[in-house]
Design brief:
The structure is a homodimer of 289-residue chains.
Chain A lengths: L1 E7 L3 H12 L3 E7 L3 H9 L5 E2 L3 H5 L4 E4 L6 H11 L5 E4 L5 H11 L6 E2 L1 E3 L20 E4 L7 H13 L3 E4 L2 H27 L4 H6 L3 H7 L6 H10 L1 H23 L3 H23 L1
Parallel strand pairs in A: 1-2, 1-4, 2-3, 4-5, 5-6, 8-9
Antiparallel strand pairs in A: 7-8
Chain lengths: 289, 289
């Protein structure tokens, strides 16, 4: 049981975590802290949080658990504030989409309190955001990655894990660099690819002619282009090295498809598409059966 | 009322057209013709077609309407067969995803019968295919593009249009080159982009590490990578010129995003993502409200 949960950024992710724990009866009281007053008031009205923290130090002073659910670029400043404010008994965890940079920022700021920080990443993003998008079932069946530090206490890691499990999530533990490498490929790159297509089309003088006839394939492909610009700016910069590598690999693959089309290599194209289709079908079966 | 509809390729598209017309009581009898015996028998069993045509000439000899719903690369050979077999009173239409090449093939083969061919393209693809995927509601609310020829009779175009409208589709008429330009951008390119990502990931020695953590964004982005390899091979080759242009534009955009990440241009990235998000939100609103 958590007596006092502080959610820094009670939006889609932070708000859903609070709601899921409330639903399970695992938290007594939730305080929300954040930059956006309107979102905090909305979260309060929706019963996601029970109080708005007027300052971070005041909010966390008797917290058992602090969840940082803000864009990763905002983490360093938060950790600097928490270096003093975080009470000795509290666990700090996060929902950042990148882990190496968040951990580096925590290490740089938290000093002797670094062991209290259990890095995490729930895989439950959406193109919606804010407290209004939060719901208690968001994490059901979704992966949550923990990338624990050598300084963490085993019982603290287990405690954070058990809370995510209570939210319905499937928790996995990974090395922080494996995490960033994997998510550069399966999440960050696809987001860039969708943003790129949408932005390029929208900039055309006759954009409406294109959008008018875009169908359901386009709709699904581009869904993640509706994601939060600031959050994705931070992710792109935070996971820069891995993402540059993924972009190069992807552009190379597109170039090789371009060459096949130019050379009218129907057989090569068909084989490539067939391998892609097979992989997709295998993945869907493994994923949802 | 269609007395005898012949569907060449009674799969997802051809089969759904037959089912929708049957449901509306607009067709008396449907014959299926195709390369795949198993699919034809499945279509017969499902009541999509009432008979299997043993040969194309025999099947079409008393047809009012012939729908060619096969990969665009298979159209030229079909048109050559139909040049002799198509009866004078019949309308021929198609469901090909590209229009300039299909029309060129029809023109090359059909001679004096070219006026009987009303080129069409229903925008209702899916990653499923075959008669088993067909259903009577597939075209409801979906766009169908007609790219009529100067040789077409106005009443024949209207007749094909009215049948698609009866299927629930929103019919638009376009110039064939506009069609191919628009669909290169909003359909063909996204398919290549999804195939590329999926194939590249699957070829990695540690592919499972990646697929294991891929989430719902990846699922939606990659859905169209489950599309039919032969059909998409044909589209890529048939719409080669427009698609090469779209690939170049897209690769340039990805390169410019790569440069922003390399230069740590957070502001540029955020603005680009925000324009993409705004365009996506506008499109969804215009599309579904």
């Amino acid at each position: 049981m958590i007596k006092h949960l502080v959610v820094i950024g009670p939006g889609l992710i932070g708000g859903s975590f609070a709601l899921a724990l409330k639903r399970q009866g695992l938290v007594e009281r939730v305080t929300g802290v954040g930059r956006g007053r309107a979102n905090l008031e909305h979260a309060l009205k929706l019963g996601i949080i029970d109080a708005i923290g007027e300052s971070l130090p005041a909010a966390v002073k008797d917290a058992d658990l602090v969840l940082a659910a803000i864009p990763v670029g905002a983490m360093p400043a938060l950790f600097r504030e928490l270096a003093e404010a975080l009470p000795a008994g509290a666990i700090l965890t996060d929902a950042g989409s990148t882990k190496q940079d968040v951990i580096a920022a925590a290490r740089a700021a938290l000093g002797g309190k670094i062991g209290q920080f259990i890095p995490g990443h729930p895989i439950a993003g959406a193109e919606t955001n804010g407290a209004g998008a939060a719901h208690a079932h968001l994490f059901e069946g979704k992966p949550v990655i923990l990338t624990p530090l050598t300084e963490n206490r085993a019982e603290d890691i287990d405690r954070v894990e058990s809370l995510w499990v209570a939210c319905g999530a499937r928790v996995a533990r990974m090395d922080k660099s494996d995490h960033d490498r994997v998510f550069a490929a399966v999440s960050h790159l696809p987001h860039l690819a969708a943003f790129a297509l949408m932005e390029e089309l929208a900039a055309r003088p006759d954009a409406n002619t294109f959008f008018r006839f875009a169908g359901s394939g386009f709709r699904d492909f581009s869904r993640i282009a509706g994601s939060h610009p600031e959050m994705w700016r931070d992710i792109a910069l935070a996971n820069r090295e891995a993402l540059l590598g993924e972009l190069d690999t992807y552009i190379d693959k597109l170039e090789s498809i371009r060459c096949m089309i130019e050379a009218r290599d129907g057989s090569g194209l068909e084989q490539l598409f067939a391998r892609a289709r097979q992989a997709r079908n295998n993945w869907i079966k493994g994923k949802f059966e």
